[in-house]
Structure formats: C-alpha cells, structure tokens
Amino acid sequence: MSLPERHMLGNVPLFAALTDEQLVAVVKGMRRIRLEEGENLFDDQTRADRFFLLRDGQIKLFRLSASGGEKVLEIIRPGDLFATAVMFSEEKQYPVSADALRPSEVFSFDNKTFMETLRHSPETCFRMMAEMSRRLRRQVVEIDSICLQSAVSRLINYLLEQAPSGVRSAVIQLDSPKNIIASRLSIQPETFSRVLRNLKRRGFVEVDNKTIEIADLEALRDFGENCSSCRMREEE
C-alpha cells in the first residue's frame, strides 16, 4: 500500500483507533476494486462477507421495487465507508445493491478479519458504534424530511446542504445525475426539474446544466421553511 493510501486509511475514524499491527492485519486482506461507470459492485441479497471504503469516484446504494423502479438510498463519496453494519447481521446478506455512478476505485475489507480486530480493540468498537449511530441519525432525519416536507423543501434543503458554511451566496455543482438526486430525495425527475424552474423564475437560483447559482442563501432558506407543507407550488 502506498503512503497516500495509508494516510487515507489513517484519516478514517474507524481505522484511526487501530494499532500499526492491527492495521497491517486489516490491510493484508484488503482488495482494490476498479469499477467503470454503471458497473455493479454487489447486489441486494447476495452474500456479504466484505465492507468497503470508496477511494475515488461515486457509488449509489439502491433497491428495486417489485415493479422494477429504482430507489436511491444513499450516494457514497470518496472517504465514505459503506456496508459496515452488515457484518453484525445474522443474515449476512447485503440489503441493497451498489453500482458505480462514475469510474470508481474501492477498497474492500474482509469482515472476519475486522471482527477479530474488534474483539481485541474496545476503542475501535466504540468508533464503529459511533459511525453506525451517525448513519442512523442521518437516516432518521431523511425519513422525517421525506414524510413531513414537500418536494420544494426537500430540494431546497439539499441545495443548502451543498453550499459552504458561513457564506451568503454560493455556486453549486451537482456531482450526480439529476435523476439520481431526485430518487435520493424521493422526488420524480420531472418534479425535480419543475421545482428548479420555479425557483429560477422566482429569482432564487440560476441554473446552467449542473451548475446552480444561489444569490441569497438566507432568502432561499426562508422560502423553503415557509414551503414546508406547500404542494401547490410544485404543480405550477
């Protein structure tokens, strides 16, 4: 493993608690996987004996409905761990599928090796629980957003989350296809585009393909809060 790769692992909280000896044991069973755009990493209900760290690119985690519709549950970005919770599951199967949204490189780690490390490292166990708790809290917030907020508010909140903190205006580059973001927000792609057009017409945003310019973040935030339950605006 190269020094940059070792440095990357050292910056991941889950690995930061490991001793050099433990890290060597975990890395020994590591595999490097390169995926092309659209290539599958694993499928729902297949045997889960490894977890992953995205080094470069972008991965979508999704499920297919009985009718074949796709629901994107999470967009994985460089530095993110995923499929960690499954090592504690009795079923030992992935609950979702994973495909590359763009050319990607993934580090794959053996669950058994890491579980053995956890047995001898209480600090790493606590870090693992913290990571799983963080994901759970984020998912609860997302469920509340989907259940309680309109499509307008969901899209506005997503845009605000992409903006840097402490600024009054921002230029945002959408790093995923719009239909993927729409699925992530539980919005139909046509509704996604319609809401963007409405926000542009009202002067809150300027849109140029995947570039979105927001002149006044606070004004957009206020509008989103006032639209927390409005649906009429989505149909304009």
Tell me what you see in this structure.
With 236 residues, the chain is of the alpha+beta class. It has nine helices and nine strands. It has helices spanning 3-10, 13-16, 20-28, 111-119, 122-148, 151-162, 178-184, 189-201, 217-226, and strands at 31-35, 40-42, 50-64, 70-76, 81-82, 97-110, 170-173, 205-208, 211-214. The strands form two sheets. Strands 1, 2, 3, 4, 5 and 6 form a six-stranded antiparallel sheet that branches. Strands 7-9-8 form a three-stranded antiparallel sheet. A hairpin with a 5-residue loop joins β3 (50-64) and β4 (70-76). The protein is elongated. The model is unreliable at 231-236 (pLDDT under 50).
Key traits:
six-stranded antiparallel beta sheet, three-stranded antiparallel beta sheet, 9 strands, alpha+beta, 236 residues, disordered C terminus, 42% helix
Which secondary structure elements does this structure contain, and how are they paired or packed?
Layout: H1 3-10, H2 13-16, H3 20-28, E1 31-35, E2 40-42, E3 50-64, E4 70-76, E5 81-82, E6 97-110, H4 111-119, H5 122-148, H6 151-162, E7 170-173, H7 178-184, H8 189-201, E8 205-208, E9 211-214, H9 217-226
Antiparallel strand pairs: 1-6, 2-6, 3-4, 3-5, 3-6, 7-9, 8-9
Helix pairs in contact: 6-9, 7-8
Compact overview of the structure:
The chain has 236 residues and is of the alpha+beta class. The protein has 9 helices and 9 strands. Helix 6 runs antiparallel to helix 9 and helix 7 crosses helix 8.
**Overall spatial form:** elongated
> DSSP strand (E) fraction?
15-25%
Query: Radius of gyration over alpha carbons?
Result: 20 Å
Please count the beta strands (DSSP E, at least 2 residues each). 9
* Secondary-structure element series: HHHEEEEEEHHHEHHEEH
What count of helical segments does DSSP give?
9
Q: Helix- and strand-based class?
A: alpha+beta
Largest sheet: 6 strands, antiparallel
